[in-house]
Amino acid sequence: MLNRYLPFVIIAISVIAIAITAISISAISISAISITGCARPSTEIVLDPISVRSSISGLEQRFEWARDTALSYAHSDSDAVGLWYEAALPGRDAFCMRDVSHQALGAHFLGLDAHTRNMLFQFARNVTETKDWCSFWEITSTGEAAPVDYRDDSAFWYNLPANFDVLDASYRMFQWTNDSTYIQDSVFLNFYERTVLDYVDRWKLGSEEILTRERYMNRESFDMNDPYQYARGIPSYHESNQDATQLGIDLLAFQVAAYRSYAAILSHTGQPTKSTEYLSKAVRTSNLITEVFWKQDINSFHELLLSDNRTSMGGGMQVYAL
Known about the structure:
There is one protein chain. This protein is of the alpha+beta class. It folds into two domains: 1-71, no CATH class; 73-321, Alpha/alpha barrel (Glycosyltransferase), CATH 1.50.10.10. Helices cover 46% and strands 14% of the residues. The chain contains ten helices and 16 strands. The protein has helices at 2-25, 59-72, 97-109, 113-125, 161-177, 181-184, 186-202, 227-230, 249-268, 272-293, and strands at residues 32-35, 43-46, 51-54, 74-75, 84-85, 94-96, 138-140, 150-152, 155-156, 158-159, 232-234, 245-248, 294-295, 300-301, 304-306, 311-312. A three-stranded antiparallel β-sheet has the order 1-2-3. Strands 12-15-16 form a three-stranded antiparallel β-sheet. Helix 3 runs parallel beside helix 5 (161-177), helix 5 (161-177) packs antiparallel against helix 7 and helix 9 runs antiparallel to helix 10. The longest helix has 24 residues, at 2-25. The chain is globular, with a radius of gyration of 21 Å. The two termini are 23 Å apart.
């Protein structure tokens, strides 16, 4: 995954870090973001095509590596799925919900907005009741579910933060691109509504029941030795010791982000009362994060709620609580 994931993330972090610094000590123009100042190294981001000019040794070359490597994973619309870029483990010829959501901003700076919109659209269009309002976790260049993660609608790999992550990413892309598809297209709107209503209800993810829900649910049979079954509904992006994890802090964090984004979408579409309702849901879920995971004695969050009701560190999920 890092082979494809890393360059997109480097692009996003680099541009944002340089922009933040530029805002504080210099100026931004339409064509470039510049960092200049007395006794400071100078750095400039030039747009279309994106590049960096800097007095810092090696920075230009590293940025060019990230840009060129990321673009080498972008594909034209000659594939059945349409425009896409690789966002999955190496060799899978696919893109997954988590990685697309997290690579989207870097892809934006690379001029891949049409690719991202199509990929998010593919996830949105494939949400169905037979999959308990999940989508396909991973989609190949053929436009089908990746067989490594999917056997049929009753047996497939799925991390429960995914729907919330894609909803939030879709709204963030609207903010960056002003592409009204994200807040007007019926497929996207259906996905958002199914996520905050049916998906939350089917998987018992509401703030009143998420702590007491069954760990394994929505299946007619269960075989712990069948990965298509035991990985159907992982309550975190943390994938180790799945049977011991009752809830990840990241699931709640993405749920908060999704509620906030959906509230903003409702506001854009002239539904202020419903918008306020989802902002309230975001507050309740955010409070739950603090109640469950904040540990005063170490002045930090734990990351995982275990099936024995203990909380623990070690899941690498703290970053999502930011």
